[in-house]
Amino acid sequence: MKFLYSIFLLLLCVFVKAQHDRYELIDLQDQNKTQVKDSLSAVKFLDSLSQHNFYLTEVKEVIKKDSLTKIYYDKGKNFNEAQVTLTPEISEITKLTATLFTKNLDSLKKEISEKYRDRGYAFNRVKSKFTGLKNGIPQVEISVIKGEKRNIDSFVFKGYEKLPKRFVKNLEKEFKGRTYDDRNLVALNQSLQNHPFVLLEKPPQTLFTKDSTQVFLFLQKKKANSFDGIIGFGNDKSEKFTFNGSLNVNFRNMFNSFETVNIFWQRNPDKDQTFDLQADVPYLFGSNIGTNINVNIYRQDSTFATVKLLPSVYLHLNNRQKLGLRGRLETSTVTDSLFVQAKDFTKKGVGLWYEFTEPSEVALFQYKTRLRAEADYISTNYDKEDLSVQQNNFLFSGERNFYISGNNYLNIRGETALLNSKNDFATNELLRFGGWNSFRGFNENSLLADFYYFGTAEYRYLVGNQAFFDVFGQYGQLNNKNLGLKPKIYSFGLGFNFFLPIGLMSFQLSNGNEFGNPIKFGDTKIHWGILSRF
């Protein structure tokens, strides 16, 4: 026991002594002091200075007094500050002078490497050669081993591989042969991000071989089919409280050709109904030519019915732009002989249209940018009057979501349309707008005009990725020659949209009127809807 006690006492003394030993490192250049626990830690600290470009660190003096050991050191020159000489090629590529002084040599080398990567030299190495000191400043020569230049040679699709051949060819046409660099990879990623039919599961991956550069795209087929139902509440022309609504069903990409079949039905408070059927096939026979066929039937209670057929062919300028040529066949029949403002007519015409869409990075928004322009030349024949006239129809609409800051966004939208002719228009051929998807605060298709325009400003506040609140205001004007009216109109309101397990839920309150008329609470419109994808 005495022996074990002696050993324990000896170890305790050594431990206590070690606990009292202290090491202090003092920088002679700026007198900074660093405390460490033992000699091994002091050595590690001095070694670490070389990682910060102090390659000539020297220990000048070591003073030990009692339990404190002071180590005085001189870091020497920081070799991250240097007078640099560049080769003529590096100077030309980086737009830097051939000789320059830098306070951060590492940052300069990284910048040079990035410039070479932007030119396709993905595996370049930037070398620096120390040539000596001049007036205490390190002299460094920089050179680059470029390696082999890399271009995008091919794409390999993984996951969802049943893609339309023309879609693949368009992607290859746009990116194949381009320099392999960060700029083109970002552009490729953005072209597929938020695509309406495919989902990019992760950023593009690259396989480098001796002779080729393959980009792997990991895609997934999107749930693109959708059901959009809207229920609205408001007063009709007789100020009787009624409900209205719409159903919009989209079947998309069921046959892996990016095709769309859209069925739309709407009923407004005045018992008018709209039925719209549209089919779109984007790549006919593996080409960049697509076709769109639209049948629209509008019935105003028991007074008249109008049927339109709009067959169209279009060219994909790229994956965001379309330019189309369409025909127009239209017929309208008056079913109430007492409704003298309407006329029986048939129309034939041809038109051009252009469409640009840019997807949104925010899942709650349908688009970041959307533009649509139409121009039609129409021959109209009024059957009972044996009269034929020429008409022109123009439409332009645009929408853009602007990011402000944080969770704040601004949606700007505008639309204008013109129906032009030397003759007066019958009521059943006037332009119709108003409602949930155009000028809110009014009943669906309740505003009649031969010319109109309106603008919308909507502030949106996002709550995570699941909901957003909005406040909006609208201003517009319409012209109705038949009635001699040119009213200026407005609307305002608020709403919220949020994701539920069944889809995107929308709720909105709106009120609209003509300038000069008092706001009526009874004119408030309530809309509730759900957009579900399957």
List keywords for this structure.
4 domains; four-stranded mixed beta sheet; 30 strands; 534 residues; mainly beta; 13% helix; Ubiquitin-like (UB roll); disordered N terminus
Structure report:
The chain is mainly β and 534 residues long. It has 4 domains: 21-74, Ubiquitin-like (UB roll) (Roll), CATH 3.10.20; 82-145, Roll (Ubiquitin-like (UB roll)), CATH 3.10.20.310; 154-221, Roll (Ubiquitin-like (UB roll)), CATH 3.10.20; 226-533, Beta Barrel (Porin), CATH 2.40.160.50. The chain has helices at 2-20, 39-48, 88-94, 105-117, 165-175, 182-192; strands at 22-27, 33-36, 58-65, 68-74, 82-86, 99-102, 125-134, 137-145, 154-159, 198-200, 205-208, 213-221, 226-235, 241-252, 260-267, 273-281, 289-300, 304-316, 321-334, 345-358, 369-382, 387-405, 408-421, 431-433, 447-449, 451-463, 467-479, 488-500, 503-514, 525-533. The strands form 5 sheets. A 16-stranded antiparallel β-barrel has the order 13-14-15-16-17-18-19-20-21-22-23-26-27-28-29-30. Strands 2-1-4-3 form a 4-stranded mixed sheet. It is elongated and about 115 Å long. The N and C termini lie far apart (82 Å). The model is unreliable at 1-18 (pLDDT under 50).
